[in-house]
Amino acid sequence: MAILVEIPPPLREAAGGNVHIQVTGTTVGEALTDLIRQHPALGTKLFDNGQLRPYINVFVNDEDIRYLEELQTPIQDGTTIALIPAVAGG
Amino acid sequence: MSHFVRGMFCRVCGKRYPISPINFCTEDFGPLEVDYDYDKLQGDLTRQTIATRAWNMWRYRELLPLEDEPRVGLAVGGTPLIRADRLAEALGVRRLWIKNDAVNYPTLSFKDRVVAVALSKAREFGMSTVGCASTGNLANSVAAQAAAAGLETFILVPADLERTKIFGTAVYGAKVIGLKGTYDEVNRVCTQIALKYGWGFVNVNLRPFYAEGSKTMGFEIAEELGWRFPQHVVCPMAGGALIGKIYKAFRELHLLGLVDAPLSTRMYGAQASGCNPISACVKVGRERHKPVKQPNTICKSLAIGDPADGYFAAKLIRETGGWADDATDEEIVEGMLLLARTEGIFAETAGGVTVAVARKLIEQGRIPRNEEIVLCITGNGLKTQDAVFDALESPPVIAPTLAAFEEFVGLRSSVVQPAPALA
Ligand SMILES: Cc1ncc(COP(=O)(O)O)c(C=O)c1O
Ligand SMILES: [Zn+2]
After folding, report:
1. What pTM, to 2 d.p., does this model score?
2. pLDDT score of B209
3. Residue contact B308–A88, C-beta within 8 A
4. Which of B181, B203, B302, B357 is the 20 to 30 Å CA partner of B95?
């Protein structure tokens, strides 16, 4: 088992064409840091001055991290992290 | 049709995009907005031109993002703006109007406007399947207008929606799927479907075009006032798009010289207390809203816990000098009854929210009592009858005789009235 980040289609080009990327870390923040270490082009797309951009939502096993512990949300082997654009609905 | 669309731009970083079915910027995920060439439009769209056209939303078509003639929803819009003197008296204000989209065509809510644009655009993009995530009204409108246009539909809604709204979708032959979760969860699934399969979801990848349709409510308000802007507009908010688009409509009319007076309208947002991310954000002075995980209100149409345009709606309200507030379930029902009993308009729960919040803002002194106010009534009460059911007494049942009637209403049947002479 591993920690997987699901990459949405519009980010795949910056992620070497991958649909899933395996990462390490014990929190969502660490996992995303590892993701950006592997694919630096994702850095400015996801973060702005160290802050997660407001129009990207991060889900840990289908739960929005804003209802958990944000970037401190703990993760373990088998966790899936999904990055989903937020501008929809209404 | 509009020859004045230049493309789209990101509302966060300004990056430009050609017209295509995408809704966010690939640099920062910011929302994309349709960009018009207002310089080129100057003088091209005049009050005279508009006056020659049919009284529906397409009379402002240069300011809508289609390349060709509209293909779906040709009769949408053109709803009445009515002077509401009896409601004004009840609220203690002098000049009050109601923009009544509860009688929009074909599905009795302002959503008919956004769907007409979105489905016309879907047709231009050559799509044959369309869908949406909906709190109800959008579902009704997509289903009806897609049926009329011969498009296939997939409509995803929270499973606990009002029966009327679910059946009012299924009746048009749409594939309606109830998801066991909140609107925000439904919305996320739709985003994933749109990204994976490329289907046209009106409020996901067609959202930049869809949302422009709401401007027509603002154009109509100004035209119906005799090409003027009201001083105060109270608008219900779910995703927060409508309130922004009404104001954008006013800005465009001013920019194009269709309304001469400067734009100083104050925008006021109305939500339900059981799902108030935007009004809470305005009231506590936060820049960005905090999402509401589990909305709990009878006003299901406005129950979006994580509004996509929350940031922009709160900013607009602050910048125009308006305000926002929210209404409890009890206040929503009172608002619905007050509107029905003073103006003869049966609005859905969102209308109850708007009336109740307007009343609060007037009582708080935030909306002055002697200035012009427009309330946006956006949906029809026949779709949310359960909300007022308990507040109404069921009608008495009596025997089918004159005597029983007279006894019931307290007329003394023993007094014999002279019968009128027959001619
Ligand atoms: C009746 C009604 N009024 C107002 C709104 C709010 O619109 P917006 O999501 O653009 O804020 C909705 C949205 O679903 C609605 O159904
Ligand atoms: Zn951008």
Report:
1. 0.95
2. 98
3. yes
4. B302
